[in-house]
Amino acid sequence: MSSTLLAQVNDQIGKIWSPMFTKELRSATMLAALVNKDYQGSINQLNDTVYVSQISAPTGELRTAGVDADKFNSEQLVTSRISIQANKRAVAAHKFEDLVQLQSQIGAEDSEIRAGLMYAIEKQVNDYLYSLVAPSTSAPDHTITGVTDFNATQLSAARTLAAQAKWLKNKGWWALLDPQYYGDLLNAQTMTSADYAPDAPVIGGEIAKQRFGYNILEDNSRSADTGLLFHPDFLHLVMQQAPRFKVSDLHPNEEFAYVISCDLVFGAALGIDGAKKHITVTA
Fold it and tell me: What is the pTM of this model?
Protein backbone atom coordinates (compact mmCIF):
# COMPACT_ATOMS: atom_id res chain seq x y z
CA MET A 1 0.00 0.00 0.00
CA SER A 2 1.36 3.45 -0.93
CA SER A 3 0.91 6.51 1.30
CA THR A 4 0.58 10.10 0.16
CA LEU A 5 3.12 12.15 1.98
CA LEU A 6 2.71 15.73 3.14
CA ALA A 7 5.58 16.92 0.96
CA GLN A 8 3.74 15.66 -2.13
CA VAL A 9 0.67 17.83 -1.54
CA ASN A 10 2.39 20.78 0.05
CA ASP A 11 1.49 23.10 -2.84
CA GLN A 12 -2.21 22.35 -2.21
CA ILE A 13 -2.16 23.51 1.37
CA GLY A 14 -3.83 26.91 1.86
CA LYS A 15 -1.98 29.76 3.47
CA ILE A 16 -4.25 31.58 5.91
CA TRP A 17 -3.53 34.98 7.46
CA SER A 18 -4.26 35.10 11.14
CA PRO A 19 -6.79 37.86 12.04
CA MET A 20 -4.58 38.76 15.01
CA PHE A 21 -1.03 40.03 14.86
CA THR A 22 1.65 39.66 17.52
CA LYS A 23 2.56 42.94 19.18
CA GLU A 24 6.01 44.20 18.26
CA LEU A 25 8.53 45.10 20.95
CA ARG A 26 8.72 48.88 20.90
CA SER A 27 10.48 51.48 23.00
CA ALA A 28 8.67 54.11 25.03
CA THR A 29 8.24 57.63 23.63
CA MET A 30 7.22 59.79 26.59
CA LEU A 31 9.15 63.04 26.26
CA ALA A 32 6.67 64.66 23.85
CA ALA A 33 3.85 64.13 26.36
CA LEU A 34 5.74 65.97 29.13
CA VAL A 35 7.26 69.08 27.55
CA ASN A 36 5.44 72.40 27.14
CA LYS A 37 2.96 72.53 24.23
CA ASP A 38 1.44 75.98 24.92
CA TYR A 39 1.96 78.62 22.26
CA GLN A 40 0.39 81.59 20.47
CA GLY A 41 -0.80 81.21 16.89
CA SER A 42 -1.76 78.21 14.81
CA ILE A 43 0.00 75.74 12.57
CA ASN A 44 -1.58 75.17 9.18
CA GLN A 45 1.40 74.23 7.06
CA LEU A 46 5.13 73.63 7.06
CA ASN A 47 7.31 76.55 8.21
CA ASP A 48 4.53 78.31 10.12
CA THR A 49 6.06 80.12 13.11
CA VAL A 50 4.58 80.44 16.58
CA TYR A 51 5.84 82.38 19.57
CA VAL A 52 6.24 81.89 23.31
CA SER A 53 6.68 85.02 25.45
CA GLN A 54 7.73 85.82 29.00
CA ILE A 55 7.60 89.00 31.08
CA SER A 56 10.50 89.42 33.51
CA ALA A 57 9.66 90.62 37.03
CA PRO A 58 10.92 94.10 37.90
CA THR A 59 13.57 94.54 40.59
CA GLY A 60 11.35 96.77 42.74
CA GLU A 61 12.60 98.88 45.64
CA LEU A 62 12.29 99.17 49.41
CA ARG A 63 11.68 102.64 50.84
CA THR A 64 11.40 104.07 54.36
CA ALA A 65 8.58 106.22 55.76
CA GLY A 66 9.69 109.79 56.48
CA VAL A 67 12.73 109.37 54.29
CA ASP A 68 11.84 108.45 50.74
CA ALA A 69 8.54 106.53 50.88
CA ASP A 70 6.62 109.37 49.17
CA LYS A 71 8.28 108.69 45.82
CA PHE A 72 9.07 105.74 43.61
CA ASN A 73 10.98 104.95 40.46
CA SER A 74 9.61 103.14 37.44
CA GLU A 75 11.41 100.40 35.55
CA GLN A 76 11.35 99.50 31.91
CA LEU A 77 9.28 96.44 31.10
CA VAL A 78 11.54 93.57 30.05
CA THR A 79 10.15 90.79 27.89
CA SER A 80 11.64 87.71 26.30
CA ARG A 81 10.31 85.82 23.32
CA ILE A 82 11.33 82.75 21.37
CA SER A 83 10.08 81.76 17.94
CA ILE A 84 9.42 78.13 17.08
CA GLN A 85 9.16 77.16 13.44
CA ALA A 86 7.13 74.10 12.50
CA ASN A 87 9.70 73.03 9.93
CA LYS A 88 9.74 69.29 10.59
CA ARG A 89 7.55 66.65 9.04
CA ALA A 90 7.63 63.15 10.46
CA VAL A 91 6.46 60.66 7.83
CA ALA A 92 6.01 56.90 7.59
CA ALA A 93 4.33 55.02 4.73
CA HIS A 94 3.71 51.60 3.15
CA LYS A 95 2.96 50.71 -0.47
CA PHE A 96 0.92 47.61 -1.31
CA GLU A 97 -0.09 45.86 -4.49
CA ASP A 98 -3.87 45.67 -4.73
CA LEU A 99 -3.93 41.88 -4.27
CA VAL A 100 -1.83 41.79 -1.11
CA GLN A 101 -3.65 39.78 1.54
CA LEU A 102 -3.27 42.52 4.19
CA GLN A 103 -6.10 44.62 2.76
CA SER A 104 -8.34 44.08 5.78
CA GLN A 105 -5.61 45.45 8.05
CA ILE A 106 -5.01 48.64 6.10
CA GLY A 107 -8.32 50.40 6.62
CA ALA A 108 -9.19 49.12 10.09
CA GLU A 109 -9.06 51.70 12.88
CA ASP A 110 -7.33 49.21 15.21
CA SER A 111 -4.95 48.07 12.47
CA GLU A 112 -1.48 46.96 13.48
CA ILE A 113 -0.24 48.54 10.25
CA ARG A 114 -1.65 51.89 11.36
CA ALA A 115 -0.22 51.37 14.83
CA GLY A 116 3.21 50.71 13.33
CA LEU A 117 3.07 53.89 11.26
CA MET A 118 1.98 55.87 14.31
CA TYR A 119 4.84 54.47 16.34
CA ALA A 120 7.32 55.47 13.63
CA ILE A 121 6.01 59.05 13.82
CA GLU A 122 6.19 59.12 17.62
CA LYS A 123 9.75 57.76 17.58
CA GLN A 124 10.91 60.39 15.09
CA VAL A 125 9.44 63.16 17.26
CA ASN A 126 10.93 61.61 20.42
CA ASP A 127 14.40 61.30 18.90
CA TYR A 128 14.28 64.86 17.57
CA LEU A 129 13.30 66.26 20.97
CA TYR A 130 16.22 64.44 22.59
CA SER A 131 18.55 65.90 19.95
CA LEU A 132 17.67 69.37 21.29
CA VAL A 133 18.75 68.56 24.85
CA ALA A 134 21.53 71.01 25.72
CA PRO A 135 21.80 71.83 29.43
CA SER A 136 23.83 74.77 30.72
CA THR A 137 27.47 74.02 31.42
CA SER A 138 28.17 77.34 33.17
CA ALA A 139 27.98 77.77 36.93
CA PRO A 140 26.11 75.90 38.12
CA ASP A 141 26.82 73.10 35.66
CA HIS A 142 23.64 71.19 34.75
CA THR A 143 25.51 68.19 33.38
CA ILE A 144 26.23 65.52 36.00
CA THR A 145 28.77 62.95 34.85
CA GLY A 146 30.56 59.94 36.28
CA VAL A 147 27.39 58.43 37.77
CA THR A 148 27.56 54.63 37.65
CA ASP A 149 24.91 54.08 40.34
CA PHE A 150 21.92 56.43 40.22
CA ASN A 151 20.88 56.28 43.86
CA ALA A 152 19.18 58.53 46.40
CA THR A 153 22.33 60.61 46.81
CA GLN A 154 22.46 61.38 43.10
CA LEU A 155 18.74 62.17 42.96
CA SER A 156 19.09 64.47 45.95
CA ALA A 157 21.95 66.32 44.25
CA ALA A 158 19.82 66.80 41.14
CA ARG A 159 16.97 68.10 43.31
CA THR A 160 19.29 70.65 44.93
CA LEU A 161 20.53 71.79 41.54
CA ALA A 162 16.97 72.27 40.30
CA ALA A 163 15.99 74.23 43.40
CA GLN A 164 19.03 76.49 43.08
CA ALA A 165 18.04 77.17 39.47
CA LYS A 166 14.61 78.26 40.81
CA TRP A 167 12.53 75.77 38.85
CA LEU A 168 8.83 76.49 39.34
CA LYS A 169 6.81 73.65 40.82
CA ASN A 170 3.38 74.32 39.36
CA LYS A 171 3.94 71.92 36.44
CA GLY A 172 5.98 69.37 38.35
CA TRP A 173 9.54 68.17 37.86
CA TRP A 174 10.19 65.06 35.78
CA ALA A 175 12.94 62.48 35.51
CA LEU A 176 13.24 60.06 32.58
CA LEU A 177 15.76 57.34 33.43
CA ASP A 178 17.10 54.57 31.24
CA PRO A 179 16.41 51.01 32.49
CA GLN A 180 19.84 50.77 34.16
CA TYR A 181 19.42 53.94 36.23
CA TYR A 182 15.80 53.10 36.95
CA GLY A 183 16.91 49.68 38.17
CA ASP A 184 19.42 51.35 40.49
CA LEU A 185 16.54 53.16 42.21
CA LEU A 186 14.42 50.01 42.39
CA ASN A 187 17.19 48.31 44.35
CA ALA A 188 16.77 50.83 47.18
CA GLN A 189 13.81 49.96 49.40
CA THR A 190 13.44 53.49 50.70
CA MET A 191 13.04 54.69 47.11
CA THR A 192 10.42 52.14 46.03
CA SER A 193 8.33 51.14 49.03
CA ALA A 194 4.89 52.76 49.28
CA ASP A 195 5.54 52.97 53.03
CA TYR A 196 7.91 55.85 52.29
CA ALA A 197 6.22 57.63 49.38
CA PRO A 198 3.11 57.07 47.20
CA ASP A 199 2.93 56.37 43.50
CA ALA A 200 0.93 58.94 41.56
CA PRO A 201 0.62 60.18 37.94
CA VAL A 202 0.20 57.71 35.09
CA ILE A 203 2.10 58.57 31.88
CA GLY A 204 2.02 56.20 28.93
CA GLY A 205 0.52 53.49 31.11
CA GLU A 206 3.32 53.74 33.67
CA ILE A 207 2.91 54.97 37.22
CA ALA A 208 5.35 57.73 38.06
CA LYS A 209 7.27 57.39 41.29
CA GLN A 210 7.42 60.67 43.18
CA ARG A 211 10.72 61.04 44.98
CA PHE A 212 12.66 64.14 46.07
CA GLY A 213 10.30 66.40 44.12
CA TYR A 214 10.60 64.46 40.84
CA ASN A 215 8.05 62.30 39.03
CA ILE A 216 10.30 59.44 37.93
CA LEU A 217 9.60 57.33 34.83
CA GLU A 218 11.55 54.63 33.03
CA ASP A 219 12.45 55.54 29.44
CA ASN A 220 13.72 52.53 27.53
CA SER A 221 14.32 54.57 24.37
CA ARG A 222 17.63 55.82 25.81
CA SER A 223 21.03 54.16 26.05
CA ALA A 224 22.37 52.71 29.31
CA ASP A 225 23.34 55.01 32.19
CA THR A 226 21.57 58.14 30.98
CA GLY A 227 18.97 60.30 32.64
CA LEU A 228 17.12 63.51 31.80
CA LEU A 229 15.63 65.56 34.64
CA PHE A 230 13.64 68.64 33.69
CA HIS A 231 10.92 71.21 34.15
CA PRO A 232 8.38 70.98 31.27
CA ASP A 233 9.18 74.55 30.16
CA PHE A 234 12.73 73.58 29.21
CA LEU A 235 11.47 72.59 25.76
CA HIS A 236 8.52 73.74 23.66
CA LEU A 237 6.81 71.44 21.15
CA VAL A 238 4.38 72.82 18.58
CA MET A 239 2.45 70.57 16.25
CA GLN A 240 -0.79 69.94 14.42
CA GLN A 241 -3.72 68.70 16.44
CA ALA A 242 -3.15 65.07 15.43
CA PRO A 243 -1.17 62.93 13.00
CA ARG A 244 -2.83 62.53 9.61
CA PHE A 245 -3.51 59.15 8.01
CA LYS A 246 -4.17 58.90 4.29
CA VAL A 247 -4.88 55.93 2.01
CA SER A 248 -4.59 56.55 -1.75
CA ASP A 249 -5.30 54.40 -4.80
CA LEU A 250 -2.46 54.55 -7.35
CA HIS A 251 -4.61 53.63 -10.36
CA PRO A 252 -4.24 57.18 -11.84
CA ASN A 253 -0.49 56.40 -11.96
CA GLU A 254 -1.30 53.24 -13.96
CA GLU A 255 -0.44 51.06 -10.97
CA PHE A 256 -2.56 48.39 -9.33
CA ALA A 257 -1.48 49.46 -5.88
CA TYR A 258 -2.19 51.86 -3.06
CA VAL A 259 -0.27 53.74 -0.39
CA ILE A 260 -1.06 54.32 3.26
CA SER A 261 0.85 57.09 5.01
CA CYS A 262 0.99 58.89 8.34
CA ASP A 263 2.53 62.33 8.78
CA LEU A 264 2.80 65.05 11.39
CA VAL A 265 4.02 68.64 10.99
CA PHE A 266 5.78 69.90 14.09
CA GLY A 267 8.59 72.01 15.47
CA ALA A 268 10.46 72.35 18.74
CA ALA A 269 12.96 74.62 20.45
CA LEU A 270 14.51 75.17 23.86
CA GLY A 271 12.38 77.45 26.00
CA ILE A 272 13.33 80.74 27.63
CA ASP A 273 16.22 79.87 29.99
CA GLY A 274 15.66 76.30 28.80
CA ALA A 275 19.32 75.39 29.25
CA LYS A 276 18.93 75.96 33.00
CA LYS A 277 15.64 74.07 33.24
CA HIS A 278 16.98 70.61 32.54
CA ILE A 279 19.74 68.36 33.83
CA THR A 280 21.48 65.43 32.19
CA VAL A 281 23.05 62.57 34.13
CA THR A 282 25.50 60.15 32.51
CA ALA A 283 28.03 57.56 33.58
Answer: 0.82
